[in-house]
């Protein structure tokens, strides 16, 4: 059944687990995510970016989500707008069956310019008021994460706006988080804790302590009823990089957020863990492998089936390691 982010994360908080939020753009990803969840009885968050909505089209996504929910009746599913940039994006998502929206007011509506605090409070408060009228949940964001432009490859230390922003803008301030949640009434809060979007997060292998655990802990202590969200949570696994590069890909050396670090974050109050890059890599590695190993192949299903299998395996691993297996 469909549930809201508030319902799902309240349960996660009560039972001390975290929920991966996988980005979805098409049927193959939807099936793989749901099959993985069903195989271990995990609750699901599927999230669509603005790019996903214009790629798949709103009506297609809506009916597909309905189909997935119907096919897996025992699995609670939250359908979430990832990085909504204004009121219109958030409200049209809800009209198309989303049970939760992210109003990302940490950036201006162009999603490139860091926004003022007052802009963020005002637009997030408006969206929360409207979403709560109709029973949808809201995630806000306070603090600026690294680049949203995937594939850009310039952001390597987790600080996409480095040079333009001071250190304190790169980590969320706990006092400001309290003010933000009091004024906006969001259900969940994405905080800047040292991660960035995309495949190129760190140039060196992280040696632990890459997440600002003290910030997570301080915010969690002050806001025990607000669920913390960690963006940029792909681990960029070396084995997936190796598969892509073995079959003609060109990913340069890079490191993501180790799963153990995410698990530490979950122990300190992180409840929603956003993962897109790893899912893309799992599928793309198989597309490349089939293309090279079977150059005579031209049936797309022969590419999709192993890609779905690789994604299913990735999702299952995250469900298990984040503690949500068996919690559906
Ligand atoms: O944080 C952004 C997600 O990875 C979605 O990316 O906008 O290319 O769909 P996208
Ligand atoms: P990754 O690029 O690390 O997968 O992060 C995805 C994300 O935060 C989506 O909102
Ligand atoms: Na989101
Ligand atoms: Zn994000």
Key phrases:
8 strands, 47% helix, binds zinc ion, alpha/beta, 13 helices, binds 1,3-dihydroxyacetonephosphate, binds sodium ion, 328 residues
List each distinct ligand once. Answer: glyceraldehyde-3-phosphate, 1,3-dihydroxyacetonephosphate, sodium ion, zinc ion
- The sequence of SSEs as H and E is HEHEHHEHEHEHHEHEHHEHH
Count the beta strands.
8
Classify the helix fraction into a percent range.
40-55%
Q: Nearest-angstrom radius of gyration?
A: 19 Å
Helix count equals: 13
Structural class: alpha/beta
Mean pLDDT: 94
* Terminal CA distance: 10 Å
Please tell me the total number of domains: 1
CATH class: Alpha Beta
CATH architecture: Alpha-Beta Barrel
**Under CATH, the topology is which?**
TIM Barrel
β-strand amount: 5-15%
Apparent shape: globular
Q: Which strand order do you get reading across the main beta sheet? A: 1-2-3-4-5-6-7-8
- List segments where confidence is low: pLDDT < 50 over at least 5 consecutive residues: 149-163
Assigned CATH superfamily: Aldolase class I
Biggest pleated sheet:
8 strands, parallel, barrel
SSE diagram, text form:
Elements lengths: L4 H10 L4 E5 L3 H14 L3 E5 L1 H7 L1 H14 L5 E8 L2 H9 L4 E4 L13 H17 L3 E6 L24 H4 L3 H11 L3 E4 L21 H10 L4 E4 L7 H9 L12 H9 L2 E6 L1 H17 L6 H22 L7
Parallel strand pairs: 1-2, 1-8, 2-3, 3-4, 4-5, 5-6, 6-7, 7-8
Helix pairs in contact: 2-13, 5-6, 8-9, 10-12, 12-13
The structure holds glyceraldehyde-3-phosphate, 1,3-dihydroxyacetonephosphate, sodium ion and zinc ion.
The site of glyceraldehyde-3-phosphate (G3H) has 10 residues, from helix 3 and strand 3.
């Amino acid at each position: 059944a469909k549930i809201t982010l508030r319902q799902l994360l309240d349960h996660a908080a009560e039972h001390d687990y975290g929920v991966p939020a996988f980005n979805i753009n098409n049927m193959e990803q939807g099936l793989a995510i749901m099959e993985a969840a069903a195989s271990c009885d995990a609750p699901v968050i599927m999230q669509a970016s603005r790019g996903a909505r214009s790629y798949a089209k709103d009506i297609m996504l809506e009916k597909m989500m309905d189909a997935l929910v119907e096919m897996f009746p025992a699995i609670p599913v939250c359908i979430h707008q990832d990085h909504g940039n204004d009121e219109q994006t958030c409200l049209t998502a809800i009209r198309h069956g989303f049970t939760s929206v992210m109003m990302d007011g940490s950036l201006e509506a162009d999603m490139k310019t860091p926004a003022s605090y007052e802009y963020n409070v005002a637009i997030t408060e408006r969206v929360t008021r409207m979403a709560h009228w109709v029973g949808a949940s809201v995630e806000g964001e306070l603090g600026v994460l690294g680049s949203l432009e995937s594939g850009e490859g310039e952001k390597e230390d987790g600080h996409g706006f480095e040079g333009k922003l001071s250190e304190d803008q790169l980590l969320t301030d706990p006092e400001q988080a309290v003010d933000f949640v009091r004024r906006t009434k969001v259900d969940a809060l994405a905080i800047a804790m040292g991660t960035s979007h995309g495949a190129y997060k760190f140039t060196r292998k992280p040696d632990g302590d890459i997440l600002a655990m003290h910030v997570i802990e301080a915010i969690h202590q002050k806001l025990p009823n607000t669920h913390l969200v960690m963006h940029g949570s792909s681990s960029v696994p070396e084995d997936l990089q190796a598969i892509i590069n073995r079959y003609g890909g060109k990913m340069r050396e890079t490191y993501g957020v180790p799963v153990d670090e995410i698990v530490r974050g979950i122990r300190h109050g992180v409840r929603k863990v956003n993962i897109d890059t790893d899912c893309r890599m799992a599928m793309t590695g198989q597309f490349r492998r089939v293309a090279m190993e079977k150059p005579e192949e031209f049936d797309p299903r022969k590419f999709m089936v192993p890609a779905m299998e690789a994604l299913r395996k990735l999702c299952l691993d995250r469900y298990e390691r984040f503690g949500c297996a068996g919690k559906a």
